[in-house]
Amino acid sequence: MKSVGIVGGLGSKTTARFYLKISDCFRENRKVSPKITIDNCAFPLELEEEIILKSKNEAKLLPFLKESIARLNKAGVDLIVIPCNTAHLFIDELRKHSKAKILSILEEMVKEVKRKNISTVGILATSKIVESGLYQKILEKEGISYVLPNKKSRKVLSKCILEILENKSNQKTRNKIKKVFQHLLKEGAETVFLACTDLKLVLGKNIVKHIDSFDILFEATIKEMEGGKNGTRTT
């Protein structure tokens, strides 16, 4: 079994949920305790707000991510995962500074779309993710069409995601997110990317026609930890 390092703190509840899901999967299905190391990426929380609400200063996050990657490499992990879409703005740069393999949410999400033979996806994400073209670039490369939330909806989503991160989300938060979600489907999306790993914390399990970046990264992590073997899907 390969050891995995998790860059945490980019949504503390999501970090904890990711760790627990891996641990539970191995305990229940493989009868072994997995080798997991978590490095909490310590950065100023006001930076989180600037990136999510104002779509600026994301480059200031990179040094903190590099430090986490360096510590996980020093710890000797075989594999590194970052359960945060925003951090993947720097995936190419981070890979240059890591001996350990770093999985990409972007690459794994597109693999899932191709596996399901989907031609058009909606992208449910913060303003920064949408405006950066992070998903659009890789989807275009693969010949996959996409539907984006408009500027007003992106601002609403960004505020909702910050509410989730600050433990201030409620039913109103959920309803606002679902409204944008449904609009993407009406605009022609066959499925919707939950391009923020924290969204499921509010949306729950009973939503249809979606691909969750959290779940997809989890599946890829389990497969990689087992040496790339094809196993039973756990979600």
Provide an overview of this structure:
The protein is an alpha/beta fold. It has two domains: 4-104 and 215-225, Rossmann fold (3-Layer(aba) Sandwich), CATH 3.40.50; 106-212, Rossmann fold (3-Layer(aba) Sandwich), CATH 3.40.50.1860. Helix content is 51%, strand content 13%. The chain is built from eleven helices and eight strands. Strand 7 (191-194), helix 10 (200-203) and strand 8 (210-212) form a beta-alpha-beta unit. The longest helix has 19 residues, at 12-30. The radius of gyration is 17 Å and the shape is globular. The two termini are 21 Å apart.
Itemize the secondary structure elements and their pairings.
Layout: E1 4-8, H1 12-30, E2 36-40, H2 45-54, H3 62-74, E3 79-81, H4 91-96, E4 101-102, H5 105-115, E5 120-124, H6 127-132, H7 134-141, E6 145-147, H8 151-165, H9 171-186, E7 191-194, H10 200-203, E8 210-212, H11 213-225
Parallel strand pairs: 1-2, 1-3, 3-4, 5-6, 5-7, 7-8
List descriptors.
235 residues; alpha/beta; Rossmann fold; 2 domains; four-stranded parallel β-sheet; 11 helices; disordered C terminus
